[in-house]
Amino acid sequence: MNIKKHIPNLITLINLFCGCVAIVYVSQNNYLMAFYMVCLGIFFDFFDGFFARLFKVSSPLGLQLDSLADMVTSGVTPGYVMYSMFNNSAHELGTHPAIPFLGFIITLGSCYRLANFNIDTRQTDSFIGLPTPANALFILSLPLVISFSDSLMILEILTNQWVLLIITLCSAYILNAEIPLFSLKIKKFSFKENALQIVFLIVSILMVVFLHYIAIPLIIVFYVLLSIINNLSLKK
């Protein structure tokens, strides 16, 4: 039996396991551990493809497993987090019990993106629309910003149901928007060819050092805006 061909799929299943554990932590309102488990899942999500290419064992099964695992870790988990944030927020939209379920619009948007990604041949070296792992990090960082920020303004903003609804709808949209986003992969050791990626990484590191958890959603927004600016410059 060729053990090598099973290693990438095993790593993918570990990603799925991390997503399942993250969901349990969200149910316990332990958003910090949920965030760490999603980060761990995303880590394994990167390396399943890496080892598949390294061992030259890429397969249709691996592609499907990867999307199914991402659906849990980067699809169901952020939707559940937003559901929980709606539950814990002030009731600007009313007290109807169905309101918090609007958070799962993120899960629906993630599902559509993952299915579309599997058949979209344009997304080999870059992305069109925000990848689900990046979106998951954005959503899971929001309750951490609330917990670790001393700003009353931030607290009021992120506990307002109208704001949460806007974030939810924007999240589902940006996942599937026809917006090319640059890849973070550095293929050649040349500053000129990788200037965009290097600038993004440097700014991101500085933001994390100085802003801590609040840097995470800002980094995702910065990534999208930098991609849009880059797209506009290429059209000139």
UniProtKB/TrEMBL annotation:
What are the subcellular locations of this protein? Membrane
> What membrane topology is annotated for this entry?
Multi-pass membrane protein
Pfam families, from UniProt? CDP-OH_P_transf (PF01066)
Fetch the InterPro entries from UniProt: CDP-alcohol_PTase-I, CDP-OH_P_trans, CDP-OH_PTrfase_TM_dom, CDP_ALCOHOL_P_TRANSF_CS
Question: Could you confirm whether the keyword Acyltransferase appears in this record?
Answer: no
Q: Does the keyword Transmembrane helix apply?
A: yes
Transmembrane domains' residue ranges: 7-27, 33-55, 98-115, 127-146, 152-175, 196-229
What are the record keywords, sorted? Lipid biosynthesis, Lipid metabolism, Membrane, Phospholipid biosynthesis, Phospholipid metabolism, Transferase, Transmembrane, Transmembrane helix
**Superkingdom, natural source:** Bacteria
Gene3D superfamilies listed in its UniProt record: 1.20.120.1760
Q: Tell me where it mainly resides.
A: membrane
Similarity comment: family membership: Belongs to the CDP-alcohol phosphatidyltransferase class-I family.
Concerning PANTHER family, the annotation shows: CDP-DIACYLGLYCEROL--GLYCEROL-3-PHOSPHATE 3-PHOSPHATIDYLTRANSFERASE-RELATED, CDP-DIACYLGLYCEROL--SERINE O-PHOSPHATIDYLTRANSFERASE
Its name, as the record gives it, is CDP-alcohol phosphatidyltransferase family protein
